[in-house]
Amino acid sequence: MRLPVQIATDNHRPYAFHIRQHFGYEGYSYGTETKVFGEPKLPDGTLARLGRNEGVRKMQTAERAAVIGSPDLESLTTSHVERAFLTVRQELKRFERKGLGYSKSLEMHKLAVALHFGVYNFVRKHHTLGTTPAVAAELEEKAWSLENVVDMTEAYWRRKRC
To answer: 28-37 and 59-68 as β-strands: parallel, antiparallel, unpaired?
Structure first.
């Protein structure tokens, strides 16, 4: 891990306690980002009725505050994690809200998530990077193929059965 480390969360109170508990008090900066949204509006610009899941709430501002150390408040954001969670919910039916694609065992759930992130980071080329995240981070010299992933998965199950 490269220092200095900057941690960003939303303003959920227990986060500060857990971050101190697991990271201690030195070697990182921690800040919060609270997003402020406006009233939900329909496409024609009128206000949506409250209590219904309709309308779009546009973000008006993001309030950022330092909690520990001196985080760079200009670059402090939770958007990266929010985007990662959205991708997981869209691509893995196990995480879809009100969905039926659930795992019957915790082990299969963990394996499905690992497979998703393996393909996402090592196989799938991202438009903004022009390559895979693993190649961009110099963890790999070239992108994996799906055939490699299938071979690794088969090897995993062969070892597991023995």
So the answer is: antiparallel
Q: Which residue type is seen at 127?
A: H
What's the average pLDDT block by block, 10 residues per block, for the chain (162 residues)?
Answer: 80 90 86 86 67 68 91 90 86 74 81 90 94 94 94 90 79
> Which run of H or of E encompasses 155?
helix 146-161
Residue with tokens 């306690």: 17
List phi, psi (to 5°) of 94. Answer: -60, -25
Three-state DSSP class for 47?
strand
Cβ burial of 106 (10 Å; 0-12, 13-18, 19+) is exposed
- Alpha-carbon distance of 26 to 61, in angstroms, equals 30
Contact criterion met (CB below 8 Å) for 62 and 36? yes
User: Within the chain, how many helices (H) and strands (E) appear?
Assistant: 5, 3
- Report field, pTM of the whole predicted structure over 0.85: no
Edge to edge, the sheet with strand 5-9 lists: 5-9, 28-37, 59-68
Rounded Cα–Cα distance for residues 25 and 6 (Å): 13
Strand (E) positions, 13-155? 28-37, 59-68
Cβ neighbours for 3, distance < 8 A, ≥ 6 positions apart:
27
